[in-house]
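Quick entry, no commentary yet.
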Amino acid sequence: MSTRKGLILAGGTGSRLWPITQGLSKQLMPIYDKPMIYYPLSVLMLTGIRDIGIITTPQDQVQFQNLLGDGSQWGITITWLVQPNPEGLAQAYLIAEEFLAGESSAMVLGDNIFFGHGLPELLASADTQTAGGTVFGYRVADPERYGVVGMDGDGKVTKIIEKPEVPPSNYAVTGLYFLDGTAPERARSIQPSARGELEIVTLLESYLNEDALTVERMGRGYAWLDTGTHGSLLDAGNFVRTLQSRQGMQTGCPEEIAYEAGWIDDAALRVLAERYAKTGYGDYLRGLL
């Protein structure tokens, strides 16, 4: 089990998905048969993290709480945190400073989906880096659209450039960050960008300047999807549907992860399965027994 604390940033307005997110948080939208937030939550659970803070807007928090509760049904603990105004990804570390209490963390953006055989092993590798920071690089065909990492042969990051005209590599920085306990202090010291936000790239650069930032590269067998547009939201749903239909296995299933990890027992899983008795999801959970 990891000693890190987990963070899910599920705030923001979701304005790029309007009008469908004007009355519902983006991270509560369905990705095929599960709410979007199940997928980043599953990433933290696969890392072995059981103490998780979820950052939401004030108006959306009750809906998230109705969905996820306190996490005890999965053998985890959820702490609810509020983002009054979206002021950059690095703001999450200021909001969560008291929750983190000096511990290292793994933060995942609430609209990011990760998939791949060997993902738990990749996460475990990053989890062993107790000092400094680790980002996850994913090869893309159009790196000029992303924040991109340049790296040396040992996996040390040499540069991070936001939407570069001449990319130093084809590896985009995904929305998953493993940082040590100094992250809130570092976030407090950075200045807002021209758009008035505390940029995650600026926070990562503070680690880079100390030669304390590494990258875990996600190879051919991985998928990284974000769901910030209507098209990518549909693509993600179709991706999950195709995987599950072909394999007969769930993707992003907290109940299965908790059961396989020994965080819940047969009786607890049976209760969860009965909750979804009229669905294929419930049938799948019963099949695990």
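second:
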Amino acid sequence: MAGRPADGGRPLSAPLRERGVLTIPQSVRDQLQLRAGDNLLIDVQDGRITLTPAALVARDQAWFWTPEWQAKEARADEDLAAGRVVRHTSDADFLTSLGEE
């Protein structure tokens, strides 16, 4: 299946230039809201190249996006939505709830 511009016209093509430079047609950049500096994931399967817009995550923040952490975030969101929360008005109140003084 060939790529088509947003207006449904004929398939698009772009020449591969020296050093592997490829210009993504403006209609495609507009459709996907791509801007200079955006990152694209590159995948090769069955003789096809797939480019997928992606946001890169700093290494020191990668832990937050692991499946395990995201599952914990989802459980926390469910607890908040169901009202299963305890709000503390002070540090001392919080420490007391932990059995500390």
